[in-house]
Amino acid sequence: MELLTAINTRTSAARLREPGPSVTQLSQIIAAAERAPDHGRLRPWNFSILAGELREKFATVAALAKRAKLPHLDDAQVEVDRQKILRSPCVVVIACTLRDQSKIPDIEQIVAVGAATQNFFLAAHDLGFGVMWKTGHAAYDANVKACLSLNPKDHIIGIMHLGTRV
Ligand SMILES: Cc1cc2nc3c(=O)[nH]c(=O)nc-3n(C[C@H](O)[C@H](O)[C@H](O)COP(=O)(O)O)c2cc1C
Q1: Which of 7, 36, 48, 104 would give a disulfide with 40, using CB separation of 3.0 to 4.6 Å?
Q2: Atom 11, ligand 1: residue with shortest CA distance
Q3: What is the mean pLDDT of each run of 10 residues along the chain (166 residues)?
Q4: Residue spans per domain, the chain
Q5: Given the CA of residue 139, which atom of ligand 1 is nearest to it?
Q6: Count of H-run helices and E-run strands, the chain
Q7: What spacing in Å lies between the alpha carbon of 135 and ligand 1's midpoint?
């Protein structure tokens, strides 16, 4: 796919099914993300591929983060939110891990990870996958960050769902 075609045909995929990307394809997608412009070559990005126990833990903590902000949600709704994360063919959380010692301002590090996230999206789209870029309450929750071994001051830029577009 030509770059302009990829950009001009990119849309969010609200519904996804299996298959998601293979390990090789995911490596290609992340390698493309890491080609983003990055002031100071700090590589301030972090990619958490949610599999196995980490996915289970993330799904629970993320669903509870939403209820912490919306206390009227009952257990059934929390379970619906948990299942959204568990059912997705592939979930990758992209975060900005701020390099404190650097003279590069935080905002420039955050923007670099935003650019990496768009590269990630376009690369997955180019390989034929549907993508949904999400954040929501989970992205701003300290327990969610801790679950991914991020620092409280780090920023979750995208909770990326990938799969085959329905
Ligand atoms: C930083 C960021 C966070 C987003 N968070 C959410 C989200 O939590 N839930 C959601 O449904 N869409 C989310 N989106 C996706 C946008 O809403 C989506 O791109 C928008 O609806 C436009 O649709 P399109 O991507 O098909 O052009 C997010 C997008 C960005 C860039």
Answers
A1: 104
A2: 134
A3: 92 97 98 98 98 97 97 96 97 96 95 98 98 98 98 97 98
A4: 44-165
A5: 8
A6: 6, 5
A7: 8
Query: Which of ligand 1's atoms lies nearest the C-alpha of 117?
Result: 31
Q: Which of helix, strand or coil describes residue 70?
A: coil
Q: Provide the pLDDT for residue 100.
A: 86
Most informative mutation of 10, 131, 135, 155 for ligand 1 (most atoms within 8 A of CB): 135
Q: Which residues contact 123 (CB under 8 A, 6 or more apart)?
A: 28, 29, 32, 33
Per-residue pLDDT, 72: 96
Residues 1, 115: contact at Cβ < 8 Å?
A: no
Q: Classify the C-alpha dihedral 11-12-17-21 as positive or negative.
A: positive
Asked if residues 90 and 124 have their Cβ atoms less than 8 Å apart, the reply is no
Enumerate residues 6+ apart whose C-beta is below 8 A from 124. Answer: 21, 29, 131, 160, 162
Provide the pLDDT for residue 163: 98
Distance between terminal CA atoms of the chain?
21
Report pTM: 0.97
The backbone torsions φ and ψ at residue 20, rounded to the nearest 5 degrees and listed phi first, read -90, -175
